[in-house]
Amino acid sequence: MTATTAPPRPAPPHRQAVSAAPAADVGAGAAFVSLLVVVALWVANGGVGQLGDGAGAATSALGRLTGLVAADLLLLQVLLMARVPLIERAFGQDRLARWHRWTGFSSFHLMVAHIVLITVGYALDERVDVVRELWVLTVDYPGMLLAAAGTVLLLMVVVTSMRAARRRLRYESWHLLHLYAYLGVGLALPHQIWTGADFIASAWSRAYWWTLYAAAAGAVLAYRVGLPAWRTWRHRLVVDRVVAEGPGLTSVYLSGRHLPELPVRAGQFFQWRFLDGPGWSRAHPYSLSATPHTGVLRITVKDLGDGSARVAGLRPGTRAVIEGPYGRLTGESYTGGPVVMLACGIGVTPLLALLGELPYGPGQATLVYRARTEAEVAFRGELEWLARRRGVRVVYLLGPRATRPSWLPASAAGLSDAETLRRCAPDVAAADVYICGPDAWTAAARAAAVAAGVAPRRVHTEQFAW
User: Fold this and answer.
1) pLDDT tens figures, 121-137
2) Which of 182, 202, 230 is the last residue of a domain?
3) 8 A C-beta contact, residue 340 and residue 428
4) At 216, which helix (H) or strand (E)?
5) How many domains does one find in the chain?
6) Where exactly are the transmembrane stretches of this chain (predicted)?
7) How many other CB atoms sit within 10 Å of the CB of residue 210?
8) Coil, strand or helix at 238
9) DSSP string, 329-391
10) Half-sphere exposure at residue 160, Cβ-oriented, CA atoms within 13 angstroms
11) How far apart are CA 3 and CA 26, in angstroms?
């Protein structure tokens, strides 16, 4: 182990946290209830009765319903990614990102349906062609030009969120474009206030929509702006030293003030901005690669692009702006007994931190470390320390990837994924299993763990998703 590396150590007992499952149930129930409330308000404001008042009225009524549900989902989408700590702990970033995409696409499709149905309904009532009616609605109705601009911005966000587009965009570019969603939501509000019959139809409607808008805006301001600013000022993190761990792999050690008060656990990540020049405003998600209870924070970054490459050039004293901590790949899910960790490449970093924190007994922990070459194996010194001092069993699986979907290297691809896992970790069926790596590899490793007899609730994964 190098002189610059502090040995990992178990977390203090007070770091053990309670399960967030009740909060998850409450959150999911609240989202469902919000949709029921929207439909109930539409019914109370005469929506059902208008379905029998002729083709134009019925079409317009359905248009209002789709618009209301679209607005509700859009605001729920904002809340999902507002980084509210209770929601983060309950669901985890990867699940929230999936729901965020689902609600985003659903709300956009409903918004398009709202525009079409409202335009057709008004055109039928006024006996004019649809194109003319769309022009009149956009130009002459209060707030509609702003709503049209907001729709264009949301369309841009939706298009760039498609998988094909995301594969062609850098994370930094996608993140910048995605921020326009907030402006799109804000531009939609005036037309609801001025022309939205169901928005202003009753005191209950006004109370509900203003409350939901205030909650979404307040959550963004509090948890995307206020809390990160407070923690950045409070802890004043600065780069202490930068250490090359291997080819294209760099660790950054950060010191600061009151670090024991920073509510972070091994396995979590922050969004980092380093004040080192142009481009500092673009945040990057990096996990802690060491237990955060030693008075120093450490992240380890692989050179995968512009943002990660510049980390190697950071100088001591550079200030850091942080958002977080985020993530559920933590010890609060540990139930005691055997621990099996499956890491691929840079995915070893949060698992290494967890190995230092979890209170497993001697010989109860196994780390299966997947890498392409011997040179890409990081932290060998720390892993040897863990093997000597805490009895961790480390299994290296080296070589190029298999041609079939598998978590194994090509040299072992002829073997069963589950059987190979049982050979690497004989007690895996009774263990808590933690997995971190690329999406496809993680899915294959999770499937292998379940096939090897691990209860799905004891398989813990989290990927950074965007």
Assistant:
1) 888 887 888 888 888 87
2) 230
3) yes
4) helix 203-220
5) 2
6) 21-44, 64-82, 102-124, 144-165, 177-195, 207-227
7) 12
8) strand
9) -SGGG--SS-EEEEEEGGGHHHHHHHHHHS-PPTT-EEEEEEESSGGG---HHHHHHHHHHH-
10) 20
11) 48
Q: What is the pLDDT of residue 465?
A: 53
Residue 280 in domain: no
Q: pLDDT digits over 328-384, tens only? A: 888 888 888 999 999 998 889 999 999 999 999 999 999 999 998 888 888 989 999
pTM: predicted TM-score of the whole model, two decimal places: 0.78
Are 431 and 339 in contact by the 8 Å Cβ rule? The answer is yes
CATH number at residue 444: 3.40.50.80
Q: Is residue 199 part of a domain?
A: yes
Query: What three-state secondary structure class fits 186?
Result: helix
**Planar angle of CA 281, 223, 186, nearest 5 degrees:** 80
Residue among 3, 7, 2 nearest 388 (CA): 7
DSSP 275-329: -SSTTTTS-EEEEBSS-TTSS-EEEEEE--SHHHHGGGG--TT-BEEEEEEE-S-
Please tell me what DSSP assigns to residue 401: B
Q: Which two tokens stand for residue 434?
A: 């933690």
At 334, the amino acid letter reads Y
345 and 225 share one domain: no
Expressed as residue numbers, the domain containing 101 is 21-230
Q: Which of residues 213, 230, 247 is at a domain's end?
A: 230
Handedness of CA 121, 125, 131, 135 (dihedral sign): negative
**Strands 339-344 vs 432-436: parallel, antiparallel or unpaired:** parallel
